[in-house]
Write a structure and sequence with these properties.
This protein has 666 residues and is an alpha/beta fold. It contains 24 helices and 27 strands. 33% of the residues lie in helices and 18% in strands. The strands form 7 sheets. An 8-stranded parallel barrel has the order 3-4-5-8-9-10-11-12, surrounded by 6 helices. The protein has a 5-stranded parallel beta sheet with strand order 15-14-13-16-27, with helices on both faces. Strands 18-25-19-20-21 form a 5-stranded parallel beta sheet. The longest helix has 20 residues, at 142-161. The structure holds flavin mononucleotide and iron/sulfur cluster. Iron/sulfur cluster is lined by residues 320, 323-324, 343-350, 363-365. Residues 320, 323-324, 343-350, 363-365 line the site of iron/sulfur cluster.
């Protein structure tokens, strides 16, 4: 397998560091640190798994070089005091023993810090917040700038002492150094503001100080937002020009992009193609001749190989792909690439948790984040038949997990194919990445000799009884919620009506005209599903209106998807009606009620996306049959308990282990 990807497995030497392959885990904040800023053992284990999985270079998430002032995130790592050295050493030691290199990203958050966390006013180049509605920072005095330069140098020296092979200076993503580089944030009039050369001065001095501290043999990475994708911000052309003022001491240019206002490009939204940003690394490499890193939705090994083979970049950065599968590299090197559990760029468990709601990161497709798949070492103590009803993602995860610990598992699906709602939604073109998860589960299930799958099969009580179940897992998913709104049931998905449910929309997804100019589309429901419909129709030229009962569209959606949707809705002038309730449905119009009164919205296509509800066609019968049977346990998981996101279903599928343990099988 390795020979098919010879560019990926070509070593790379930068100063005294040699990477065994070209894959770098990009820095990603996790919220796994201790409250003190120290590495936790859980955190060390998380990185060690990615090193064991074959990653060439692990670039540890942004660590604070000057706390509390420059601190970002709730439990961010610190590297601004020698007290942090012992655990940092434990980390580098744990990663090195698997042959991986390790670096750490050094950062000052500037205006992206929050006073509620740091107990002081955040600082920046000027008094411009790092995001819309953010806190107004205090412009740094000149002597403070020189102190921060010194702190970067001290942190780099400390990293070297802790055994890191390299450091990365973070000068992108709306953090302090980026706030100086970017005209969006910097309106200073001294030698640190104004011209590109002046805005570059801070970064240049930081790099020079770091070099002075770490010496000539230690590689330095520099992360930049090459194109800020923001009005008035640096374009790729601007960065290509201004790099001449500060690139000198950087050995590797880590070519990222985006600001806080364009986070959908920084943490790539799921509609962006694999490796779409490699043109930026290529341009930087061509101009400066230095090794460059590119990243962005790279999940498929062939995409990585092709980028390297073309010479667009020298190192492939993989972030979320390595959260989803710590063994991404090892599976290419030694095994079957179909075993890779590809990240679906949903941004729910990682960015949604960490950036959205201050939780530690988790993963939709990998319920073993952060602990790793330790369960695979377990084996049942006595025979156990597990019958899973429903072949969606939750059911498949439960069936595979049970089989992996030795149970005889039976998976019954009424439809002729597996995959459930995730597979259905993936038929919407911009959601096609979603299919990677059910396809991975199907592949995993096919490899398990003790897992028997029946598709196109009703889960009758007779069939279930014949399988002699010790455990029955009901995972029958969800169906669209249709509240008792006058006219709704008579019109939705009916002949001659223009009112669609989401499932009917998907089944006609290839029938809608490409050009819908002059057509009216009205979507009822501003949640994730309603927004998927908007994303499909707005770019086709239709005049789209979205109606939401609550005060915001996209409530609870992760910040990346939200930024992407807001950009799309602005670009295509989508009418957003909040605090608006659906009152009556007719075949070609909705009557809605706003604070100002009622309005009739006519449409060529109307969609009702008011959420999903648990679907339990056989659960009651199963409970009636087996509840008195002391040898058979019944559990209900995923959407068939309460409709939620894929991540909850996957977790509950894996939790079948707890039931097996509870009843003495494990
Ligand atoms: C949860 C999360 C945290 C991140 N934290 C950082 C960070 O600390 N520093 C940084 O430069 N980029 C950060 N990023 C961006 C990633 O390093 C990476 O560039 C981005 O996710 C795109 O690569 P990918 O598609 O392979 O994930 C973060 C991304 C995620 C999802
Ligand atoms: S939560 Fe979603 S985006 Fe994040 S790593 Fe997992 S699959 Fe990828």
């Amino acid at each position: 397998m390795k020979r098919n990807y010879k560019h990926i497995f070509e070593p790379l030497t930068v100063r005294r560091m040699t990477m065994k392959n070209r894959i770098m885990m990009t820095p990603m904040g996790t919220n796994y640190g201790e409250q003190s800023g120290e590495m936790s053992f859980l955190h060390i284990n998380y990185y060690e798994q990615r090193a064991r999985g074959g990653t060439g270079l692990i670039m540890v998430e942004n660590a604070s070089i000057y706390s509390p002032e420059g601190s970002n995130g709730t439990t961010q790592l610190r590297i601004d005091h020698d007290n942090f050295l012992p655990r940092l050493y434990k980390l580098t030691e744990s990663v090195h023993k698997h042959g991986a290199c390790i670096g750490i990203q050094l950062n000052h958050a500037g205006a992206s810090a929050q006073s509620a966390r740091i107990n002081m006013q955040p600082v920046s180049a000027s008094d411009i917040p790092s995001k819309a509605g953010g806190e107004i920072p205090r412009p740094l005095e000149k002597e403070e700038i020189y102190l921060i330069i010194k702190k970067f140098g001290e942190a780099a020296k400390r990293a070297q002492m802790a055994g890191f092979d390299t450091v990365e200076i973070h000068a992108g993503h709306s953090y302090l150094l980026n706030q100086f580089l970017s005209p969006v944030y910097n309106n200073r009039t001294d030698e640190f503001g104004g011209s590109a050369e002046n805005r570059s001065r801070f970064v240049r001095l930081v790099l020079e100080e770091v070099r002075a501290q770490v010496g000539p043999f230690f590689p330095i990475f520099l992360r930049i937002s090459a194109d800020e994708f923001a009005e008035g911000g640096n374009t790729l052309e601007d960065t290509l020009d201004s790099l001449k003022y500060y690139h000198e001491e950087a050995d590797v240019l880590d070519v990222s992009c985006g600001l806080n206002s364009s986070i959908q490009y920084q943490i790539d939204a799921n509609y962006l193609p694999d490796g779409w940003r490699s043109y930026m690394a290529k341009a930087v490499k061509e101009k400066y001749g230095k090794p460059c890193v590119t990243m962005g939705n790279i999940r498929n090994p062939q995409v990585a190989e092709d980028i390297l083979a073309r010479g667009d970049a020298d190192i492939i950065g993989i972030g979320r792909g390595l959260i989803a599968d710590p063994e991404w590299v090892r599976k290419i090197e030694l095994g079957d690439i179909n075993d890779i559990r590809k990240c679906i760029s949903c941004n729910i468990g990682c960015a949604g948790n960490r950036i959205g709601i201050n939780r530690p990161i988790r993963c939709t497709v990998n319920p073993a984040v952060p602990d790793g798949e330790v369960y695979k070492k377990q084996h049942i103590r006595k025979p156990c038949n597990v019958v899973v009803i429903g072949g969606g993602t939750a059911g498949m995860e439960a069936a595979c997990t049970a089989a992996e610990v030795g149970c005889t598992a039976f998976l019954i699906e009424r439809k002729p194919h597996l995959g459930g709602l995730a597979m259905e939604i993936s038929k919407i073109p911009d959601k096609k990445r979603l299919a990677d998860f059910p396809n991975y589960l199907i592949h995993r299930s096919q490899k398990l000799k003790n897992l028997y799958t029946f598709t196109g099969t009703e889960a009758s009580i007779d069939l279930i009884q014949n399988l002699k179940p010790d455990l029955i897992v009901n995972a029958t998913g969800s169906s669209p919620l249709l509240p008792p709104i006058p006219g709704l049931l008579d019109t939705i998905d009916q002949d001659g009506s223009k009112v669609y449910s989401i499932l009917n929309m998907i089944s006609h997804v290839n029938d809608f005209p490409e050009d819908l100019s002059g057509k009216e589309v009205v979507v009822i429901g501003g949640g994730a599903v309603g927004l998927d419909v908007v994303e499909f129709f707005a770019p086709r030229g239709a005049q789209v209106t979205i109606v939401e009962m609550m005060s915001v569209i996209g409530n609870g959606i992760d910040p990346v998807s939200k930024a992407g949707m807001n950009e799309l809705m602005k670009k295509h002038k989508v009418r957003q009606m909040t605090n608006t309730a659906l009152k009556h449905v007719q075949p070609d119009s909705f009557l809605v009620e706003t604070a100002d009164g009622q309005e009739q919205l006519t449409f060529d296509y109307g969609f009702v996306c008011l959420g999903m509800k648990a679907n339990q066609p056989v659960l009651q019968d199963i409970q009636n049959t087996f509840d008195d049977d002391s040898t058979t346990e019944v559990i209900n998981i995923g959407d068939s308990t309460r409709a939620r996101r894929i991540i909850e279903g996957t977790e509950e599928g894996r939790n079948v282990l707890n039931t097996l343990e509870k009843y003495g099988y494990l």
